[in-house]
Every structure is written in structure tokens, then in C-alpha cells.
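ok trying this again, last paste got cut off
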Amino acid sequence: MASGVLFIGWGPAMPGREQQALKVFGEAMAYWTQLQQQGVLESFEPVALEPHGGELAGFALLRGDQERLSRLRIESEFVDLNTRAQLVVMHFGVVLGYVGEGLNQLFAGFGKHAAALA
């Protein structure tokens, strides 16, 4: 069961780069599928948001082992793909998150430290 996620968020395509944004998104889908087939990711889910007046147009949740996801963030293919995305969409970002047992451990540590500081 996944202990972590990578939240990859993006805003609208840069004006004039809409076709390139679609191309890079297709590359990302193929790359994430490959990572899932290799067992690096447990699963991934891309999400497109309806217009809402904010900066976030969509995101993907890549689920897997917390440590493996941390290592993935510095692998050249991952970095290169994210660099390409930054050139065609606004407000691009990648954030490591906690789910499942990773979330339980995070909150257990929080509770321990909060009690010690009370």
C-alpha cells in the first residue's frame, strides 16, 4: 500500500504553447505508465479541473513508496520531463505528500512532539 504521493500541479498552458502543452502531457502519461509497469509507482491519477478562478488547472497524484518517490524526484528523466512542463504551462509544481502508513507515521510523530511541548 502506498505511503506517499507526488502531487504534480499545473496551471493553464502558456498562450501560444497549447499544442506543446498537450504533447508534454502525453509524454508524462506515457512516462507514468512506464513507471507503474516497472513497479516504481503503485498508481497514478491525472485530474483536470473546471475553470474556478484559481491558478490550478489540473494535477496528477503519483502513488507509491515514500522513499522511492523521493528518489524519483532527482532522476534525470523525471527532472527533464518537469523542465519541459515548466516551459509550456504556468504555475507548475511538484510536492511530496503522505498517505496511508506514511500519513499515520507523520501524525504519530506530530502527536509525540506536541505532547512533549505541552
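PB: full thing came through this time. The radius of gyration is 16 Å.
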